[in-house]
Every structure is written in C-alpha cells, then in structure tokens.
Write a structure and sequence with these properties.
627 residues, alpha+beta, GIY-YIG endonuclease, 5 domains, 6-stranded mixed sheet, 19 helices
C-alpha cells in the first residue's frame, strides 16, 4: 500500500520530474518542478484552489514516482520527452508526432534526397514541418520539384552514376539527372542546400545567392546554367509575391501562435513569418484540453512543438501569456539552448503584434468551427446508420457496408465491382474489382455469385494467414468482413447469393437494392421480402449514394479493362460507337473479331459489307506488320 503521507514527507527539495500513476499502473500525468517537495505536496493539500481537471486527476492517483535532475531546464527537457513517450491522459497533448508529415532532406548523406515522411528521427537529416494535412506537404513537394528538379527515382548515388539511360523525368526537364555524370557532387549538394533555404523561408537570401550564381555563369559563358538560375529566381519571386506581407520592417524569423478552446476541443494556429512574409501556416488540434486555460494550452504547445524542432524562430509571439513568469523564462532559455542563440517569447498587449495575433486567432476559430461541423456531420451519419439498423432489424450498427454490381455490354465481358462504405462514407481505397472468369454471356446471377465467392474466399485465406502470423491484418485487402451486404439487383440476386453464403457458412445480412422504372432504388429486398424506404429519409439518400458509387465503380473498371479494345476498334474507318458495341456484343473479345471472316462480320447487326471489309483488312494488315 502506497503511503502518501510518508512519501510526501520524503520528497527531495530539488528540481525534477514527477509521474502520477492510477491503480492500473498507467501514467496519467507528468509534470516538472523547480522544487519537487513543494510542487507535489500542493496536489494533495486539502483546501487547495485546484481546477476541476486537477481534482479529477488527483482522485485517480494511486501512487507517484519522481526523477531528480540537475536543473529545472533539464527537468523541462525530461518532462517533454516523457509526455511524448507516455501520452498521459491529463497532460495537454499535441497529436502524436507520427501522425504529422514532415519534409525530410537527408543532408547528412553524400548525395541527399528529399521526401515526405511521417514523424521525425534523430538520424542527422533535416526535417521541415510538421504539416497537418497530406495535401500541404504534397503541395510543397510539388513546388520543390518544379523549382529545383531533384531526382525522385529509386537510383542510388554515386553507385548508379553513368549506369543506364536517364529516366523520363530528365527528358521532360523534371530532373537535373545526376545519373548522367554531368553534375559534380558539390553541384548536387548545392541544389539540396538551396532546397533547405527555400523550406526555411529564406527566399531573399536564396535569391541573392542564385543571382550571384547567375552572374558567374554568364561571365563564364554558361548560358544554359544562367538561364536555369534566372528561372528559379523568377519562380521564387512569384511565390513570395503571393505570400501575405505582414511587416516589411520585421525581418526576423517569427512564429505567431494563438489558441481557441471550447469544451473538450482546442485548436492552435501558427503562422510562420520569414523576411516579413507569411510563408506558411498550420493548425493543430489539442487533446485533453478540457479544464485548461488558453495560457496553459499555449505554454504546453510551445514546449512540445519546438522540442527537437529543426527550425526555431528568433521570436515567438503568442496571444496568451503564462501566469508563471519563471516558466516563460525557462522555456525561452531552453529554446535558446536548442537554437544556439537568443529566442524571444513575446505576449503583446498593444500595437501591430496584437493585430497579428488577432489575425492568427481568427484562423484558429475557423479551424475550430470546421471541426465542430465535421463532428455534426459524423453524428448525422451515425444517426443514419442507426436508422438503417432499425429499418432492417440488423441488431448492430452497419459501420462497414459492402455493395456489389455487375457490368457488361449486352452480356459480353462481365466485370464486377465491390464498393465499401465505412461509417457512412465511401472508403475508396478499399474498393475492389473482379473480372468474371467462369460465366459466359449475360448471367447476372452467376456473375454475382462468382464475385461474392471470390471476395469471401480471399477473406477466408487472409484470416488463415493472419492466424498463422504470415500476414499483418493491416495489409489484408479483404478483411474485415462487412456488417451488411447490398447487391445491385432484386430478389433473384439475393436468392442466388444467399444459397452461396450458406454453403460457405457465412452469416452476414444481405439485401438487394430494387430499382424503379427510372433505374433508381425504390426498396431493399431480403430473404423475408421487400422493405420500403421512404424517399425523404436519410437512409434512402445513403442507399442511393451507395448504389451510385458501386455502379460507377463497375462502369469505370469495365471502361478501364476495355479501353485498349475500344481504342483499337476506333482506329478503323467506318466503325463508330454503335458498330463497336455490336461487334463486342457478338464476339466478346478483340481476338474473336480479328479471326472472323468478312461475311461473318457483315452479318453483325448495324454492319455492312464495306465496314466488314475495313475491319477484316485492318486486322490482316496489322497481323502482317507484326509478323
């Protein structure tokens, strides 16, 4: 039994970090202290003026432990590391580092590379970010590729220099092609130092360096190199001109931070200002923020965000000042130690900087508003799924729905598609397509049976592989199984597939999407008959969305599969869409059309002798060329 009174009495009067544990041994809070005895004692002192959040945390503490450090600065560093490692539920948390994207430049390698990665490592490379959305990081990479044309292929340098021909990127002027051996190691590395300058927002410095390089190249009559420098300069200036100018006299690197909070939700917005321009901005959702002040949220964000960061600005402007002035000085001191020179923490009360914070806070409020809207939509989706469960008496929420459809041209070349909806939304990466292998002609029932059989055969095989440790569940393509199956068809489809699933011993609710005369869903049909769906209901809208998605997926796969056939027939004079469709319906494949005689081709609906001769002669002449 942990004796709180005795343990508190024995606490050292030294700086350090304390860890609060619950009865399961889980670390629920990590804090740092200038004097451990004083700080930890405060938590367990009666009549202390604690916030509801602290009271809730203390009520769960079963025992605590502590680590003594040499200084408060060292305690701050250890606190940051332990919070990142254990992610305690009562600490204000920036999202797990691994969820963020960074642009990594492997400047530590003789021949550096640039790429988008998840999280950072202490591997000597430079990491720029974090970027919240994948689109933000990807857009930045697109700009880098356009400006600097770094190699993006899998070749390794210097091993692959002068081995093989340059790839397509070189020929379309999208890579400076070190593989040709025309670029020295120093020139190669210089490009990547320029990329680093660009990512750091040092546009003016980069333009100055490129201007000098352009002049030198012109003097040496290297006009192609000079032109490349000129193009880079123009592109960088174009990007700079699009960036908001906030203060032309403010030339230091500055980050501006503002927080907004409401209930369990908090958002931090950061504007990155370089050379007086906003070169980037990101917003971050903060976890475990209920009961915390905005000042606490900003303080903890600064500690976690800049811990181990590649780019620490000269000044950090924040809208919420910590109550503890010593804490502010301690954070600034730690940032100074990491950067190697002075870092100023500013909490403005008036002037231009207050306006700057207000602009950043307005963007944070917009991020919070968007988040609340997303939550509202998710609740609506959840309500629709509950209504669908009630309507079909499923007994559970259909969080994963799979829908199936068959596509063909009048029975020729059947294909099947599987669309997946998770939590009421299409999960397009999980869509699957099937080329029908065992069915000839227009037999929708048999085609649907084949698709369902192959889908669950793959699923059963993957289950066995996962159980045997041969497959990671995250790499499975046909797991998990759905909570509900919808077929694009009526009771005949349902009956055919139900028999198959009973044979395979698979028990999953199954319904067909019955269509009206206008080819729109009017009801769902199951083993016990039809279930009417009101056209005004959210369930109807969801089913219609699912029907449209699976139909589009089937048509898209059919077109992709037959694109080559269509393009081949399109080359033949006199063969339009109508005749092409008729030929494919009759013969089913390009090979069968190729082997047909003129008289046979002329007998096909909508064909005449002239068109038949054109088809016959086209394939005969192509065959002779290939021979």
């Amino acid at each position: 039994m942990f004796d709180f009174e005795e343990e508190i009495k024995n606490l050292p009067e030294q700086p350090g970090v304390y860890l609060m544990h619950n009865s399961d041994g889980e670390i629920i809070y990590v804090g740092k202290a200038k004097v451990l005895k004083n700080r930890v004692t405060q938590y367990f002192r009666k009549n202390s003026n604690h916030t509801p959040k602290v009271l809730a945390m203390v009520a769960q503490v079963a025992y605590f432990e502590y680590i003594i450090t040499d200084s408060e600065r060292e305690a701050l560093a250890l606190e940051c590391n332990l919070i990142k490692k254990h992610r305690p539920k009562y600490n204000i948390l920036l999202k797990d580092d691994k969820q963020y994207r960074y642009i990594k430049v492997t400047i530590n390698e003789p021949y550096p590379r640039v790429m988008v990665v998840h999280g950072t490592r202490n591997d000597g490379a430079k990491y720029y970010g974090p970027y919240m959305g994948k689109g933000t990081a990807r857009n930045t990479m697109d700009i880098i590729r356009r400006l600097f044309k770094p190699p993006t292929c899998s070749r390794k340098f210097p091993r692959d220099i002068r081995k093989g021909r340059p790839c397509l990127n070189y020929h379309i002027n999208a890579c400076f092609a070190p593989c040709t051996g025309r670029v020295t190691k120093e020139e190669y590395r210089k490009v990547f130092f320029e990329i680093c300058r660009f990512l750091e927002g040092k546009h003016e410095k980069l333009i100055k360096e490129l201007t000098e390089e352009m002049k030198e190249a012109s003097k040496d009559l290297l006009y192609e190199k000079a032109a490349a420098c000129r193009d880079k300069i123009n592109s960088i200036r174009e990007i700079s001109d699009r960036q908001k100018i906030v203060n032309t006299s403010h030339q230091t690197d500055t980050d501006v931070i503002a927080a907004v909070a409401e209930g369990d939700i908090a958002y931090i917005e950061v504007f990155f200002i370089r050379d007086g321009r906003v070169v980037g901005r990101e917003n971050y959702r903060i976890e475990n923020s209920r009961g915390s002040t905005k000042a606490d949220i900003v303080t903890d964000f600064i500690k976690q965000f800049y811990d181990g960061a590649e780019m620490i600005p000269d000044e950090i402007i924040a809208g919420e000042e910590p109550e503890d002035a010593e804490e502010t000085e301690l954070i600034a001191d730690r940032l100074r130690a990491m950067k190697g020179r002075k870092v100023t923490l500013t909490f403005p009360k008036r002037g231009e900087k207050v306006k700057l914070v207000a602009m950043v806070r307005m963007n944070a409020e917009k991020a919070l508003s968007n988040h609340k809207l997303r939550i509202l939509k998710e609740k609506e989706k959840s309500g629709v799924l509950e209504a669908m469960s009630d309507l079909l008496s499923l007994g559970k929420i259909p969080n994963r729905i799979e829908a199936y459809d068959i596509s063909n041209i009048q029975g020729a070349d059947n294909v099947g598609a599987m669309a997946v909806f998770e939590y009421g939304r299409p999960a397009k990466r999980k869509y699957r397509s099937f080329k029908i292998k065992t069915v000839e002609g227009a037999d929708d029932y048999a085609s649907m049976r084949e698709v369902i059989y192959r889908r669950f055969r793959h699923g059963l095989d993957e289950e066995e592989a996962v159980a045997a440790g041969k497959l990671n569940i995250r790499d499975a393509k046909f797991l998990p199984y759905p909570d509900l199956i919808l077929l694009d068809g009526g009771k005949g489809h349902v009956r055919a597939v139900t028999e198959l699933m009973e044979m395979m011993d698979i028990d999953i609710p199954l319904y067909g999407m019955v269509k009206n005369d206008r080819h729109r869903t009017r009801a769902l049909t199951g083993a016990d008959g039809e279930v009417e769906v009101s056209p005004q209901s959210p369930v109807f809208k969801l089913v219609t969305h699912i029907q449209d998605e699976v139909h589009d997926a089937a048509i898209s796969y059919f077109r992709k599969l037959h694109g080559k056939i269509d393009s081949e027939l399109d080359k033949i004079p006199g063969i339009g869409e109508k005749r092409r469709t008729a030929l494919l319906t009759k013969y089913g494949s390009i090979e069968a059309i190729r082997n047909a005689e003129v008289e046979e081709l002329a007998d096909v609906e909508s064909m005449d002798l002239k068109a038949a001769e054109n088809v016959y002669n086209y394939f005969r002449s192509n065959r002779q060329c290939s021979d």
